[in-house]
Design goal:
Chain lengths: 110, 119
């Protein structure tokens, strides 16, 4: 199965700053997705980027994908305290079956 | 977006008892649901794929007799942790895929999770 590994494991920033986290994977993919999890809650889908796309935006989120390096990055611009959460990348290895990375825990302080 | 409801959100039980967790798709039909387990500050581990009207498919290393999955209808899947022990304590999350017919656009909708604590 594929492995999505995020780095850093934890990130602490102040409101207004940008947060960048990276994800690496091992095998070829059809798409890569990013999810967010608030403490003790389920995951919420943030953004999907297809293998033939290099960059995608959604509000304050920007995702890049480099299939040659098997890596993706998630950038959150102008972060807010409400962005405090864990962020996971996920790659599919079957219909609906996803492999999640270890996650990046982001803390945004006011 | 699609809504997945999971209950209970938290359960505390004695060792040896069984616990049932429900996962419902509220505004769509989910022919396939997935059950994940998550340890504190760790990633999600896929336990099994729950298919409506058929047996669940378990991932390697997951005890099917310990974690019973039933998907009796298009909107409900249940996970029963049988004879629970303290090592079964964990955060369990269900999810459902909304089929688009396009593998490249599949994404998951998650329940809010169940924190199981076995004493």
């Amino acid at each position: 199965s594929q492995q999505g590994e995020e780095d850093p494991q934890a990130l602490s920033i102040q409101e207004g700053e940008n947060a960048t986290m990276n994800c690496s994977y091992k095998t070829s993919i059809n798409n890569l997705q990013w999810y967010r999890q608030n403490s003790g809650r389920g995951l919420v889908h943030l953004i999907l980027i297809r293998s033939n796309e290099r960059e995608k935006h959604s509000g304050r989120l920007r995702v890049t994908l480099d299939t040659s390096k098997k890596s993706s990055s998630l950038l959150i611009t102008a972060s807010r305290a409400a962005d405090t959460a864990s962020y996971f990348c996920a790659t599919a290895f079957g219909w609906g079956k996803f492999q999640f990375g270890a996650g990046t825990q982001v803390v945004v302080t006011p | 977006g699609a809504v997945v409801s999971q209950h209970p959100s938290r359960v505390i039980c004695k060792s040896g008892t069984s616990v049932k967790i429900e996962c419902r798709s509220l505004d769509f039909q989910a022919t396939t649901m997935f059950w994940y387990r998550q340890f504190p500050k760790k990633s999600l581990m896929l336990m099994a794929t729950s298919n409506e009207g058929s047996k669940a498919t378990y991932e390697q290393g997951v005890e099917k007799d310990k974690f019973l999955i039933n998907h009796a209808s298009l909107t409900l899947s249940t996970l029963t942790v049988t004879s629970a022990h303290p090592e079964d304590s964990s955060f369990y999350i269900c999810s459902a895929r909304v089929g688009t017919g396009d593998f490249k656009r599949e994404k998951l909708f998650f329940g809010s999770g169940t924190q199981l604590s076995v004493l």
